[in-house]
Amino acid sequence: MTQSGFIAAIDLGTSKITGVIGRKNENNVISILECVSLPSENSIRRGTIYNIDKAGAIVRKLVSMLENAQGQKIGKVYVSLGGQSVHTEVIRESKQLSASGIVTEEVVAQLRKVAEQYKPDLKQKYGIGDVEYFLDDKPEKNPVGVACSTIEAEYQVVVGRPNLALNIEKTITDKGRLQIAGLVVGPLASAAIALTEEEKELGCAFIDFGAGTTALSIYKGGILRRMVTIPFGGRNITRDIAELNFVESDAEQYKIKFGKARESSESSPFSSPFLMKPDIDLVELNRVIVMRLDEITANIKEQIRLSGYQEQLGAGVVITGGASQLRNLDEYLTQKLGMPVRKAASRKTLVNNSPEYANDPALTSALGMLLFASENCEKMIEEEPLKTEEKKTKGSSVWDTFFGDRGGDKEYKEQTDRKGGRKDPSRQPNKENKSINLGGKMKNMFSTMFEEEDDDQ
Where do the segments described as Disordered lie (predicted)? Predict the structure, then answer.
C-alpha cells in the first residue's frame, strides 16, 4: 500500500457505529488517520443489524464525514461481524501416517482442507481460527518435520446465524454504497490488539463488554480455546435504571456519571447536576446496576467453567469495550470471579499515535480490525464501484481476510478462494457436542443464549 492509500474499517456496534481509517507499516503497527462514531439509533440489536435502511444511512453519513476529514474517497471497508449467535465450535480431524512417517506441509494442508468442508447445522461457518496439533496424542505447536504415526488437528471454527453476512452486505454494499474488503470477527479483533502474547500463553478470560452483548474469549497456551457471546450488555443496565422512572437517555447519563459496580450503604437522594433532570437516589442506582451485573457475571462464570480452563487462567481476566468503563467494575469482577482483572484498550506497541483513540476501550474492536486489513481502501478514479469485490461478503471472505492473512498459509488461502469452486460436501468431520446442563432459571437462560430476540434490543 502506497503512502497515499489507507485502510478503513467499520465497527457495527449496538450503541454506535464507528468508522476508522489508518495506515499500517511492515511491523503491523497502526497509524490512525481519522476516527468517527455515530449513534446506531436502534438499527443494531445485540450486535446484529436490525434495520438495514437506517444502518445504511448512518454508514453513508459516517463515510462522508471520514472522507471530508481525510480529503480522500473511501472505496471499500473492512466490517466487523458479531452478534449474540457468534461463537466457536470445536472440530477434530486426524490422519494415520506410516510407522516411520514424518509430518509434512502437505499433511497439514490435507487436514485443513477436510476441516474447511465442515457445515454446521442451522448455522453459517464464518472462519477457521486457531488450531492445535497432537502427534501421537502429545500436543505440538509446530508439527511439520516431526516423526509420528498419528496426527490430529483440533480447530476452533467461528459460526453464527446465516443472515449475519447477508445483512452486512445489504447494509454496506446496497445501502452504504461501498465494497466490502472483508469481514472481521469483532471479539477476536479486540483480543488481537488488547491482549499480550504472555496473557494468551499463560491463559486468560478476555471479556469485551459492549452495549448489546458481552463477548467472552478463553485463551490458553497461545491459542483461542472458546469464544461465546452473552446476550446482555451495558444497554441492559441502562434500561434497568430507566425503570426507576427515567427516560433512557437520562438513565445512560446517570450510569456514566455516577454509576458504580458497588452498592452503597446509606440511602441519599441526590440532586441532579444535569439541567432540568430529575433527582436520583444513588443507592438505588447502584443497587440496580449490581443486580444486572450479577446476572451477566453468572453467565460469564458458567461459560468459563464450561471451557474446562477455569483453573488454568494464569493471567486472570482482561476486560475491554465501552461498557467496561463502569467504575469499580474491575474490583467487582475480581471478587466475583476470584481472579485478578486488568482493564485494557489498544496496546501502545500496536498504535503509534492518537492516544485519545488508542486508550479508549470503546474503540478496541474498531482499531483491532485494522491489524487484519491488507487492501488499499482508497477509492481510485478509474475504479468502478461494486464490480470487482461485491461477492467478498460471502463464503470464504471471512477466513481469507481475518485468518488467512495472519497465518500466511498460502495453500489454505488458495483452497478457500471462491474461484476454486465449492468443496466436496460428502466428507463431514466430527464436531464436538458441548451441552449445557444447568438447573432452573439458569438452564432456561443458557438454552436461549444463542437465539436472536428481535423484540428485545
Answer: 383-443
